[in-house]
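OP here, attaching both records as promised.
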Amino acid sequence: MTLNVTAVSYGLKLSQPEVRRLRAALTAAGVTLDAGTRTGNGRFEVYTAGGTLETGPADVDGESALAGLRRAVTDNGVDGVDTAIVPAALRNAPRRFLLMDVDSTLIQQEVIELLAAYAGKRAEVTAVTEAAMRGELDFAQSLHARVAVLAGLPADVVVSVRAEVTLSPGAAELVAAFRSAGHAVAVVSGGFNQVLGPIAEGLGLDYWIANELEIVDGALTGRVLGDVIDRAAKARYLREWAAKEGIPMEHTIAVGDGANDLDMLGAAGIGIAFNAKPAVRAAADAVVNLPYLDAVRHIAGV
């Protein structure tokens, strides 16, 4: 069986000797490469090369061969340069579905930490958030504990926090590129609808969902309404929304940074760790260690 793949390498700088080393690592791993192309946007550089990989008779869908190739490239890559190995079928699909995490992915901040600052609890909430993102704590339990410290804050702190939020560099460009090409874009967040809503609407996202802060008599109660958006929910929404768009799961891309994103990264056609925790980088199909979220569009071929 022959598996058609595309190798996409990206870094702040990508010299010709580094390109040759990357090609040598791919060839040594069994890929027959086409001629590659170099692109860049002044912030980072990209090298893309198509190729074929021969798989064994037992590897019916090419998954084990693909995983082995990714490990080989990671082990023999170039410092400061990441390489994603992407099935050509995903990059060539007429429609693709992109699902992203929000905090520390679509945006640069963790919203719960910004809210906690108004309660004078930022340091302790930050410590809990980091432990949860490393997978050391149950996300739902940790969220309830962090939200509890917000009890009594006036509801208009949400407006103040919204003004503090900034998109990750390249986020708007990534969304615009996908949407202008006719693809679907969504976000799913363990954060809060009251902050996410205006951001999602401003970007023109197809779908979005987060947790809902309970507000009574103009103040936060320290509780969230309904079920928490945890790692299982994120994967569920990926499947649900992709099906609604008529897009096969193998043509989906998921991007996130923390343990709460692991299920959706594993379920997607390609799961991308964006400046992520070590456990997430280890589990993902591809990693982006650049500060620029629009590197994802080059991985997806958009």
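Record two, same layout:
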Amino acid sequence: MKKIYIAGPDVFEPDSVAIGKNLVQLCQKYGYEGLYPLDNIVDFSQQKHKIAQNIFDANIAMIQEADIVIANLNPFRGKEPDSGTVFECGYAYGLKKEVYGYLSPACNYIDRFTEDERFAKEGSFYDLDARVIEDFDYPLNLMLSCSTKIIEGSFETVLKFLKGRE
């Protein structure tokens, strides 16, 4: 049975344990074993840096154990996905794992900026701080979009996609 590492900022939600249980159950429904970061056992009585290192090491071990990573790439605290999730995708890609992300909607990145949040100049778009906004017809930064199969929808949408290619 293939193992799926479940990446995403869901671990920060108030009901993160219940979310994880649901995602693991969805994996089982489609014939996979789900690995959810909060299933790791960490001693929270230590110093903060030691706790952080233990969480990092445990998540790295889970990614190494997994065959596939499915990541929640929806915006988190802004227009971009969670930075920890992005790291996990890149790490898994470097290990030659299958990496999938879900996003809703999966519109072009440039379209995440309203007319009031961007301006055009010399054929390019810029944010209000005059920084170029990528426009490659991808839903996210090219580094993530070129390394991760991004699917519009939900975690279950990705599971259905995976089952459909078997």
